[in-house]
Amino acid sequence: MVGLWALLLPMASLHRLNQHGRGDAAVEGRPKLLLVSFDGFRWDYIDRVPMPNFDTVMEDGVMVKQVENIYITKTFPNHYTLVTGLYAETHGVVANEMYDPVLNRSFSVDTDSRYEPQWWDEAVPLWVSIQNAGGRSGAAMWPGSDVKIRGQFPNQFLQYNASVPFETRVERIIQWFSAPKAEAVDFGVLYWEEPDESGHLLGPQSPLMDAVIAGIDEKLGFLINELKKAGIYEKVNLIVTSDHGMVQLSPDHIIELDEYVSRDLYTWVDKSPVVGIRPKEGKLDEVYSKLVDANPNMMVYKKENIPAHFHYQHNPRIMPILLEAKEGWTITQNRSETFMLGNHGNDNTLPSMHPVFIARGPAFRQNYVKTFMRSVDLYPLMCHILAIPALPNNGSLSNVKDLLSREPTPTPPSTRPPAGRDSYAPLVGALLGVAMVVGFLVVFVKQVTLKQLPTLTHRRREMSQPLLQ
Hints:
Pfam families: Phosphodiest (PF01663). The chain is α/β, with parallel strands linked by helices.
């Protein structure tokens, strides 16, 4: 009995500590996190022109030099990865334009199909997870955030409208974070279309891009000032990133499919530089044979032969044949189609496809530079900051824990609400203490018994392999 009380007393003390709020994130207030994406902001843009506001965030926080995003390096797949931690083959948003042979339906970012939950429901975005954990979320134009995913919208959201100015989006999300405690959001996402649109039009090498990039820094400065005016700049963890980079194209580097294969043999899905080809019934081998060696600047894969490191095979929305133009090249059916001077979508290991990443706030170190991370690692990092459990994902917190101001603990802080006057918390705490003692005794007896058996080595590791549906 003496040994039993020796174990129970520390547990009772721990229970009293949690009752008074110390060590309990929910009692002190859930951490706040704002994730911002400047679409198409390539990682090296920050060194191109003076960027005082980006510099301020980096000095106060962290920067990652190279972020390897997911394949394909397009807008919708990568934005959904940022909030799910999953490769495209698992979360199901495999391209900006898709065909689902099971549903026999098509998806496009330019049609109302983007609002249909069936395209998104293969994964659970972070705004749904935070709400399921008792928190609140707000979304300003983030891809997919105006869709009812797993039966839920964000608590606060703006339906996508490209004409809404950045400043209006910022003002709205600041209102959500600054609302009375019961209504304030804990997690917010904010999206802006630039510098992607200008990068497509001008090409990243154009001198005219300098003003566009400087304009993004000014917009970040506006966001910072609004956070300060609201008195929440030091409370909110701010992450500024992007979905992909951008590469310069040339009208001299065009691959015309009409030169190699008849359009009567296939359906074209999605756009350059990665194109899905859906052969007509019984025509797969014929189409593949016509394309596989057609042009040295175009890689051609049957679905089952797509390189494993792309994590881009195991979903019916990935077409039977995949074409990928080499960096700087464009695939068209013929030259009558619209040509862009800049594009993205290529191999995610190419530096030109990599996005920017900076962050600051109470959760992050100061003036720290990290060499490399993967975009799938952001999701478990955000879950840790928000003190909620991460769903199964392709990332790893251990890969990015050095960005944090404090070493992560093995388990997230408690998120239960504070005890009220009529709470059963004391009784529950005592029962938990007894249960822990009983568990300890069981383990002790088991260990004594196992000493008679050969030792087995167990290794606990975080999920890092593709999750297949």
